[in-house]
Design brief:
Helices cover 77% and strands 0% of the residues. The chain has seven helices and no strands. Helix 2 runs parallel beside helix 4 and helix 5 packs antiparallel against helix 6. The chain starts with a helix and ends with a helix.
């Protein structure tokens, strides 16, 4: 047996079957051991490859599940307790894990396909993104505030010069309050009816309804200054 053959552990090829005897028995045993070694090496390689692939699949599935959990909680208001695995799910996962890396890899691949199908379903059925309360309410307070501004401009144009302070005082006190009240009631009528109270954002409404008064006062002041 050469040095290279000794290093690789390979059994040298025999030109002819040896005669029956101790040497033949030794060669047969050595060949059987070499076959076992090769099978064990191949099994270890497959095992390591399955473990590596299973870890990669596990990372992908975890990331997909975390993103879906966030979307379900944010967009559909699904309680967090309903998104946690149940005892039956844990039992099934434990049974799959006992099958070794190959069984775990197959289960994780199936889980990834399921999460991808869930992503497609969420994309198709995702509700329209809800507006923030202040932006949503501004769409209601804004038109009422615009009406206040138009009425004030019309009254300023048609009123006699001596009655402008009186109209300004009446409009400045009553119309913003009226616009704010109408906006408050309209928001409750449009967005109310649910289990949670409606956020009417009163500060935003007050600013929106008082803005026409400030603009009118600035306009009157500038007009008087230039005149």
């Amino acid at each position: 047996m050469t040095d290279q053959q000794q290093a690789t552990g390979a059994i040298p090829a025999q030109p002819a079957p040896p005669a029956p005897g101790p040497w033949a028995d030794y060669l047969a045993a050595a060949q059987r051991l070499d076959a076992v070694r090769r099978a064990a090496s191949a099994a270890a390689t497959e095992h390591q490859a399955a473990v590596t692939a299973a870890r990669q699949e596990l990372s992908l599935v975890r990331a997909q599940l975390a993103a879906q959990e966030a979307r379900l909680a944010r967009d559909l208001a699904v309680p967090g307790a309903e998104l946690m695995p149940q005892p039956a799910d844990r039992d099934v996962a434990a049974q799959v894990a006992t099958g070794g890396p190959a069984a775990a890899l197959a289960a994780l691949q199936q889980a990834r396909r399921t999460t991808e199908a869930g992503d497609a379903l969420l994309t198709e059925t995702a509700p329209a993104r809800q507006w923030r309360p202040w932006a949503r309410n501004l769409l209601i307070y804004g038109p009422f505030a615009a009406v206040v501004l138009i009425v004030q401009i019309v009254l300023y144009l048609v009123a006699s010069p001596g009655s402008v302070p009186t109209y300004a005082l009446l409009c400045g006190l009553s119309m913003p309050v009226l616009a704010f009240g109408l906006g408050w009631v309209t928001i409750g009528f449009v967005y109310g009816g649910g289990p949670d109270p409606v956020d009417r954002t009163p500060i935003v409404g007050a600013i929106a309804c008082l803005t026409p008064v400030l603009l009118t006062c600035m306009g009157v002041g500038l007009t008087s200054f230039f005149n």
